[in-house]
Specification:
alpha/beta, Immunoglobulin-like, TIM Barrel, six-stranded antiparallel β-sheet, about 20% helix, binds beta-D-galactopyranose
Length: about 575
């Protein structure tokens, strides 16, 4: 049994009553950045041959600091002043580059792999998106401010790099007729998309963000209109992909929205390719089209699919050119919803690997504003209503699930607690590990769940998630999980070793919180015989569609036919 209850035993009524007091909340756990240099973030970066490289070296420590890069392949450059890797490399290959950061307090080095090949987003994208805080009121100034704040807050030193515009950079002819900033020709006579008056210079904006060594993203829909009824890419997919590339954009979130509307299907906007011969073909078609268009451009553009997890998107998102795909609907700051979303990810780990990520939606932390719909210019922000403990669960679980981490709050209003959640390098490392292994649910009880993921160096990260309202003792029981010997247990949030444990490790986790530990192999440590991947013991290895296509009579396939999955299904 992996999960042990202490305080509020489900069996003992008196104990339950004793625990009626509000569960204590965790404070800031992340230690402050040290003065000595520390190189953070991903250790591996994918780029296609000849495509521009842009990556800012994330380093914490006291400035001034000297930065250097050794072993650059022909074509790659390193701007030591700005700490930005650039240029373009024509030859395919894996190039180790050694970065050095030095100041009066110390010196740090790190070997980084530049992988020139077909894959990009070799670790989950980390950045910010405008929707959860600015939604339909977003302006160019919000984007510039977010880029500025990503640097001034220090987030950039921990690996955050994308600044993404969501819906509402385009015109909106029907829904927001009264908002003059959203009116105007949707496209130029030659079909080129027009941004709205709030975004007068999309290229200038991209240049501004790039000048900071950051990347920039935007949003569209395969339908004629986006979810907010701004102009979508319907019938202009290749033209739009080229426009985004010409402007210099690095990321596209492509949101199904009106593509699937019933009236649309009935012929209001007719298109013979809309319904494929099978539900799978129907679902993949619009994304395949844009995926091909993006891949043909002269710059790498991360393709983020948003169709809310329909038709087992995890099983085909990568095949249509996607690097990440939403696994469900919109995430809000509700604990029951978060618990449900987390649970729904349990079957998805076989689909995640470098360049292919399941996306449970953006981070709901800090000052956000989503919720109300219907007023133009809604900018009222409220603090995220998750408790501190729940925010630890949120960030911990998104980290181990290898989720794209896109901060949803107004970066200009970051409070210390939120910043501490986003700047813990050991937690971020769990998300950015080069193995790209998504956590699986390996033990569960009525009050808690144990999730685990292997890391590239043979260590294992465990998330001990207390789903109950009050404290629960949660154990990592080596025998039942298939691990042997002694392991050094390190608390990732506090960045502290807890000690060496054999047989079992257990700790008390406050209500709704998650304790994140990394186990490093010590004496006789190994996986038990026959266990090649700690996740093989997953308690949830069926592969089912998260949401079936809305076609009468359609039955989602029970399992996904792939070698790895068949083996697991057969267990
Ligand atoms: C939703 C999407 C949100 C946001 C919004 C914009 O469909 O899930 O994340 O992009 O559209 O209208």
């Amino acid at each position: 049994m992996n999960i042990v209850n202490t305080c509020c035993s489900t069996l003992a009524l008196s104990a339950t009553m004793l625990c009626a007091a509000p569960t204590p909340q965790l404070g800031i756990l992340t230690p402050p950045d040290g003065n000595a240099p520390r190189i953070n973030g991903t250790r591996v970066y994918g780029v296609r041959p000849g495509r521009p490289i842009l990556w800012r070296l994330p380093v914490t420590g006291k400035r001034p600091m000297r930065l250097a890069a050794e072993g650059l392949p022909p074509g790659a450059t390193f701007d030591a002043e700005r700490g930005v890797l650039g240029g373009a490399v024509a030859e395919r290959g894996t190039y180790p580059i050694t970065f050095t950061a030095e100041n009066g307090d110390g010196r740090a080095t790190r070997v980084f792999k530049l992988v020139v090949g077909d894959k990009i987003a070799l670790t989950p994208p980390m950045g910010w998106n405008s929707w959860n805080c600015f939604n339909f009121a977003v302006t160019e100034k919000n984007i510039r401010d977010a880029a500025d704040a990503m640097v001034s807050s220090g987030l950039v030193n921990h690996g955050w790099q994308y600044v993404n515009i969501d819906d509402f950079w385009q015109n909106n002819p029907y829904r927001f007729k009264d908002d003059a900033t959203l009116q105007g020709a949707e496209r130029k006579p030659d079909g080129t998309i027009n941004p709205n008056a709030r975004f007068p210079d999309m290229k200038g904006l991209a240049d501004y963000v790039h000048a900071k060594g950051l990347k920039i993203g935007l949003y569209s829909s395969p339908g004629p209109y986006t979810c907010g009824m701004c102009t979508g890419s319907w019938g202009h997919e290749w033209q739009d992909a080229k426009t985004y590339a010409d402007w210099g954009y690095d990321f596209l979130k492509y949101d199904l929205c009106t593509y699937n509307r019933k009236n649309f299907r009935k012929g209001m906007y007719s298109h013979k390719g809309i319904a494929g011969d099978s539900p799978l073909e129907t679902a993949t078609l619009p994304f395949r089209l844009m995926g091909e268009a993006l891949a043909a451009q002269k710059r790498d553009i991360v393709f983020s699919l948003c169709q809310y997890g329909q038709v087992s998107v995890s099983s085909w998102g990568e095949n249509v050119g996607g690097q990440c795909w939403r696994t469900g609907g919109d995430f809000r700051d509700s604990f029951p919803q978060m618990a449900k979303i987390v649970r729904a990810q349990a079957s998805l780990w076989p689909y995640a690997h470098p360049g292919a990520w399941n996306d449970p939606d953006m981070l709901m932390v800090g000052p956000i504003s989503i919720g109300g719909i219907g007023t133009v210019g809604m900018t009222k922000t409220h603090g995220c209503t998750f408790t501190h403990n729940e925010q630890y669960t949120h960030v911990s679980m998104w980290a181990v699930l290898c989720a794209p981490m896109l901060i949803g709050c107004d970066l200009t209003k970051l409070d210390d607690f939120t910043l501490s959640l986003l700047t813990n390098d050991e937690v971020i490392e769990a998300n950015q590990d080069e193995l790209g292994a998504q956590a699986a649910l390996v033990a569960k009880g009525p009050r808690a769940q144990v999730w685990t993921k292997p890391m590239h160096d043979g260590s294992l990260v465990f998330a001990l998630f207390n789903t109950a309202d009050d404290a629960t003792r949660i154990a990592i029981d080596y025998d039942s999980l298939g691990i042997e010997g002694k392991w050094l247990v390190r608390d990732l949030w506090r960045q502290k070793d807890e000690g060496i444990y054999g047989i079992k490790y257990s700790t008390e986790v406050p209500g709704h919180a998650t304790h994140l530990v990394r186990l490093f192999p010590k004496e006789d440590a190994r996986l038990a015989e026959g266990v090649t991947d700690i996740r093989m013991n997953s308690v949830y290895i069926q592969f089912e569609a998260s949401r079936p296509v809305d076609k009468p009579g359609y039955k989602a396939p029970k399992s996904y036919p792939c070698e790895r999955c068949d083996r697991l299904n057969a267990k």
